[in-house]
Amino acid sequence: MPKLPEIARNPLAFIAARWTPDPVTVRRATLAALAMSVVIVITGGAVRLTASGLGCPTWPTCSGDSLLGTREMGVHHAIEISNRMLTYVLCAAVGWAIIAIRAMQPRRTGLYRLAWAQFWVVVGNAVWGGLTVLTKLNPYVVSLHFLLSAALITVAVLTWQRVAEGDAPPRPLVGKPVRQLGQLLAAAAAVLIVVGTLVTGAGPHPGDSSTAYKMQRIEVDWRTIAQLHADFAWVVVGLTVALWFVLRAVDAPPGPQRRSLELFCVLMGQGVIGYVQYFTHLPAALVDLHMFGACLVWIATLRVLLAFRERPAAGPDTPSAAAQERAGLVRQPVDAARVPLADQGGDPLPVRR
Hints:
Blueprint: H1 6-9, H2 11-16, H3 23-49, H4 75-102, H5 109-134, H6 139-163, E1 171-172, H7 176-202, H8 222-249, H9 254-279, H10 284-306, E2 309-310, H11 321-326
Antiparallel strand pairs: 1-2
Helix pairs in contact: 3-4, 3-6, 3-10, 4-5, 5-6, 6-7, 6-10, 7-8, 7-10, 8-9, 9-10
């Protein structure tokens, strides 16, 4: 049997042997994958908000044996099939990031695995999207479809961030209590997003305008869930403000302070959209804009957490994080509450700048 050419046996290795991208190219590739992860959320929301969720009544084909359907199926079919086709664009963006990362020199195995994880989340969410069609837009299935999109955005943000970092063990830039406050903020933001999907599942946009199927909805007044959603939003805002003040009080590096301020600004914009859509009875355009805002809130939250540490480039003799700590090589963040302000005689200590 003739031996297959190298490009057929291992195309990624074939490309990596002949092309080495510069860091800017890799950074742009991962940013494109992140951008497409957000775009697919917006277009998916447009499918539901235009009542086109069953524009293709089956999956993986569109109708019967037809993969794309026909023009006679109408505008809802065109909207739904366009969103399905964008999944291939997303796969292409993620694939480009995988190729660029694989071709980097030196090879970064951890980053390469992150890129492939992004691809498998895309595949899993595409299959789950098909399940939403097969269950006739069951609101719980649709909610999890959005949450899987949030997971995709999470992996995409991590991949994008790691490209600009080294592979040495992470070193904290703030103290443990500050990191714990950030983790609490991230948990509250996650709950906020989950409750937001329940608002969608109970709201007046089931996703299909036909009378061929009885659209199931979450059996609770959407205004009640919306109020709970607003309450959690204020919790997240409060934690963000508290984190910003704490970072200022402990004289944290500019990065974490800037990221927390960015999150606050995104939350304020998202809050304005949320209240306007509530008092205008959830117009479709504002709901989709609010979904875009939810993506930005989650991205900004992740960037706050990632700003709490740094990862320099790893050398051949770089010890592990535990070894560095045992050897006293890790500079622990200063806790301002434990810094003495006077010596044993009561005289003030000089302040080093």
